[in-house]
Amino acid sequence: MNGIMKAVLRISSFKTVGNPLKQVLFPGNTLATTRKLQYTRTLWHMCSTISADPNISKLKLESPTKLCTCGCGSQRMQHTKSEQELVQFLSEEIAAECKAQKIKNIPSKIDGFDVKLDGAEVTLVKKSGNEIVTVCFNVNHTVDTDDASEAEVNPNTDRTDFAELKSKPTFDVDLQLGDQTLSFTCSFLPGESQQTDEYNDIFGIDDISIYKGEWSDKTYAVSGEILDGCLYDLLMNLLEEKGISNEFVEKISEFSTAYEHSLYIALLENTKKFVSGK
């Protein structure tokens, strides 16, 4: 019985010693086993000494990690080609628009009028005694594209020079006295109309109304085109006395141009963030 136990122990010890020897004599089996294991970034794989083994150098990562080529650091294939091209173009467009921006800081006052901003809405308010003068306009779709479409080619640089974009919004002027409001809707006159106008006005009255309390759709309004000429001139003089002159309206255009441009840049930046997913 003791002889049998000793024989078993000898065989077991021989197998234990034989396993490392087998690994040395038959490295191919070890490599096959290694291929089945998950190839992770461990200290052993990162060690430079493994490069000495030609078999180890043949190991390839089955599913390597690839970051999005747009440089956002996200997972592979998160952004399509069109998204990457759009983000690249937006980056260049934002840089160009910021460089062309003339007014970086939007003023809080214009000729004594306090400026209030609410998105695309702009409100100018001035109090004089018991009277309140309010000017309201919206900068959406106000850029003058007629002048911008007239392009001139510079023969010295072979470059097309476009006219400067200007915002010319339609604006409302409310003269409030107590609970009564005399309201005007005004707009910029076309260039040819300014040349034929004997007063050289850059804006005109589109319609006029007067109401008590809040304005509603039931409020009657009359078009400025059918007003008596003398009455029209007197109303224009009234607006000028209240501070709504040609010079002030020109400043409205300059303010609206700068503010619209800042909103456009913000739109480009927000679009870039949306597309890139940041």
Overall description:
- By secondary structure, this protein is an alpha+beta fold.
- The chain is 42% helix and 22% strand.
- The chain has helices at 2-25, 27-36, 43-46, 54-57, 81-100, 145-148, 191-196, 229-241, 246-276; strands at residues 109-110, 113-118, 121-128, 131-138, 151-154, 159-162, 171-177, 180-188, 203-212, 221-223.
- The protein has an eight-stranded antiparallel β-sheet. It has a two-stranded antiparallel sheet with strand order 5-6.
- Strand 1 and strand 2 form a beta hairpin.
- Helix 5 runs antiparallel to helix 9.
- The longest helix is centred in the C-terminal third of the chain and has 31 residues, at 246-276.
- 11% of the residues are buried.
- Residues 30-48 and 61-65 have low confidence and may be disordered.
- This is Complement component 1 Q subcomponent-binding protein, mitochondrial.
- InterPro entries: MAM33, MAM33_sf.
- Belongs to the MAM33 family.
- Pfam families: MAM33.
